[in-house]
Amino acid sequence: MFREGPATTASPGKASLDTRYGLLGALLIAPTVLVFCAVIVYPLISAIYLGLFSIYTPTMEGEWVGMDNYRRLLASGEFWRSLLNNVIWTVGTLALQVIFGILVALMLHRNLVFRAFARSLVLFPYFLSTVVAVLVWRWLFNDLYGVLNHLLMWAGIVDMPVDWLGTMPNAMVSLILVGAWKYFPFVVIAVLARLQSIPDELYEAASIDGAGAWGRFVDVTLPQLRDVLIVVVLLRTIWDFKEFDLIYLLTGGGPIIGTQTLPLMVYKEAFALNQMGGASAVAVLMMLIMLLFMILYLSRARD
Amino acid sequence: MNGLQNKGGMTRRRALQGALALSAGAAGLYPATGRPNTTLRWWSTQSSPEQLAAYRYQIAAFEAQHPGVQVLFEKTSDEGYPAQLAAAFAGGNVPNLVTHLPSFAVADYWNAGLLSPFDAVIDAVGAGRFFDGTNRVYELEPGVHAAAGIGNTAANMLWLRTDLMEKAGIERPPATWDELRAACARMQGRGVYGAQFPYAKNSATSLVIICFIHGAGGQVLSPELEVAIESPAAVNALEFYRSMREFCPPGATGYSWGESLGAFVSGAAATGLYAGRVLVNVSNRNPRLKEHITCVTFPTVSADVPAWTFNDYPSVFIPADAPDRELTRQFATWLYEGEGYIRQLHATPGHILPVLKTAAQDERYLDHELVRRYSGEIALMSTEAAAGHNLGWESPAHRINVKAGALINSGVLAEMVQRVVLNEERPRVVLADTARRIEAIMKA
Fold first, then answer.
1. What is the mean pLDDT of each run of 10 residues along chain B (444 residues)?
2. Which is the CATH superfamily of the domain at A72-302?
3. All structural domains of chain A with their residue ranges
4. How many whole angstroms separate alpha carbon B381 and alpha carbon B154?
5. Sheet holding B293-296: strands in order across?
6. What is the ipTM of this complex?
7. Is the CB of residue B410 less than 8 Å away from at least one CB of chain A?
8. Is A68 near chain B, with CB under 8 Å?
9. Using an 8 Å Cβ cutoff, are A75 and A67 in contact?
10. Which domains does chain B have, with CATH numbers?
C-alpha cells in the first residue's frame, strides 16, 4: 500500500531504543533535578508562601495576611535604610577587594623571593573561620586593650581610644575594611591564575609600540582580566550582598541600625521579633533586588 | 585448619565483631543494663568554667544513679538564647531542660503553649524548701507553675572600689545619681574610667535602662500593662544615662554583660553595675582587688525614690515537646539536691543566690571563702534580689507581662538609648517613638 507523508527514518525497533535512551536520560538527570528541587525550588516556594502569612517563629503557626508583610516593609524606613546599608557595604567592600586583589596578584606574579610562601600566606584570611577572624579583629579594635588604639595613641595621632565599632561612620568603615581583608584573597586566586596565562608576546608587542608599565597594564593586562573580573565581581557581589556572619558578629547591625543589612533584618524579623512571615518577605525582596542587579550587570557585561 | 580461624575456633570476622561490640560498649553505645541509650539535653546561659565544673559533678552523679542515661550540657548565652530556642521550638528539636533563662522568657514561651507544667518538680523538691514567693513569677495560671527558680540574681548592684574612693576622698557610697556622677568624676583618670554602663544594641542595654527608668520613679508599662514609658521620669533617666557616657570607656557602645563585668574586674572602671559574679571573677582573675571591692544598692534619682533591683529570676523549665519528660523531671529535681546544688552556688558565690532555705542555711554553703569574706555583700544582694523585679513583673502591683521577652528581643529599648546617646536626639521625641513601637509589640 502506498502511504504519503513525512519520511520516517526510524524503524519500530529504533523508536523503542530512542525511548529507552530518553528514559535513561531522564533517570540519570533525576537525582540532580530532585536535589535542585529540594535545595532551591522548595525553599524558594516556601519563602514566597511564608511571606504571605503572619507566623510566630517558635510555633510556626499563624494566619494569612496576603501582601501585608510586603506593604509594611516597603512603608518602613528600616527596610530602606537596611537596603542602603547593604549597597554601601557591598560596593565598599567589593571595590576594595578587587583593588587589593589585583594589586596583590600583580605583586605575586612577579619573581619574588619566597613567592610560593607569599602566595600561601595571602590566602590565610580567606581560609580562616569567620568567627575566629572576627574575634581577632574585635580584639584589635578593643578600646582598652586593642593594639590599634595603642598604636594610634603611641604615635600621637589620637588622644583617646577610637570607638571603632560603636559609632558611625566608624562601624561601617571598619566593617568594610575587615570584609575586604577577609575576602580579597578570592580575587587574588582568580586574577593570578589568569595573569599566568596571558601570552608574553602581548607585552613584548606593547613595549615595542612604546607602552610603559602603566600603558601595558591598562592596554594589555586589564582587557585580558576582563572576563575573569566579570565572574569575580558577579560571584562576590552575590556573596557580599547576602553576607551575614561577619556583620552580625562584628557590629550586630549597630549602632542603632547603622550597619544593619537585609540579611540581618531577616534574622531580626525571624528570631528577635519571632515574625517568620516578615522575615520571609524581606528574604524574597532581597532575592528580587539581587536578581535585578544581576540582570543589569550581566546585560552590561555582555555589551 | 582454616587460616581465618584461630585456635579457639573463632573466625576473624567474629573476632572483629566482638571487638567492635566491646568498643561500642566502652563508648557507651550499649550500656551495661542493656537499655537503649537515653540522652537528656540541658541548655543553660550560665556556663563559666567554674559553673561547668559544678554541672559536671551533678551530671556524673545523676548518670551514676541512672545507668544508660547520658546528660549532654549545651551552652547558650543571654544574647543568643532567643534565636536558638526559637529555632529549636520551630524545628521540633528542643532540649529536655533549660536553665537560667529570665522569668519573662518563661512567660513568653508559656503563653505560646511551648512549656510543660513544672509543678511536679516543685513538689518533688519540696515546695516548702523554697523561700516564700520565690516561684510566684512562674505561676502563670492559677495553681500552675511554668517553671521554678534555680537561683536569684541582684543584677544591678553598684560595685565600688574602696581604694579609689579613699584616694578620691569619697567618704560614703553614692546614694543618688548626682552623687554617683560626682564620684565617677573624682575617681576617673590615669587610665581608670568612672563607670562601665552598656550603650550597645543588645539586651544588656535594654535591661539596664529599665533599671534607670525605675530609678527615676518611672515605669515602662503600667500595672495594667498599658504603655507608660513616655514620662518625665523616663526623660530624666535617658538624660542621666547620656550624661554618664563621658565616664564610660569608648567601647561601651559595644558592651554586653561580659564586657561590663570585664571592665570593672580588670580595674579599668572605678564603679560597676553588675551582679555577684564580680566576686568570683575578682578572686580568680584580679585578686589584688579582693580587699578593695564592695557593693551597695544602685543609686536612684533622689532619696525619695526607692531602689529598684533587677532580678531576672533565673529559671528551670521543660519544653512541652521534650522527650523523656519523666526522666527529665527527675534530673531537674536532682539539680536542687544537696552537694550538687551547693556546688552550683559556690561556682559563682553571690551571683546565683540560693532559692532554697535549706541550702542558704546549709553549713556547706556558708563554709566557702568568698561567702565568708563577702557575707555582708551577699546578704544585701539576697535581700535585694528577693524583692527584685524585671520587665516581666515591674512591681508587686503589675500583672505578669508575657510580652516582656519580645520587647527585650526586639531591641527597641536599646535603640532608644543609642538614639539619645549616640545620635543626640531629644529624649522626648525618642520616647514618643519608642512608646509607639512598644504599643505595636504589646498588641502583636
1. 39 47 43 65 95 97 96 94 93 96 94 96 96 92 95 95 97 97 95 95 96 98 97 98 96 94 96 96 96 97 96 96 96 95 95 94 94 95 93 94 92 97 96 96 89
2. MetI-like (1.10.3720.10)
3. 12-50, 72-302
4. 6
5. B271-274, B157-161, B293-296
6. 0.82
7. yes
8. no
9. no
10. 38-152+312-385 (3.40.190.10), 157-308+411-443 (3.40.190.10)
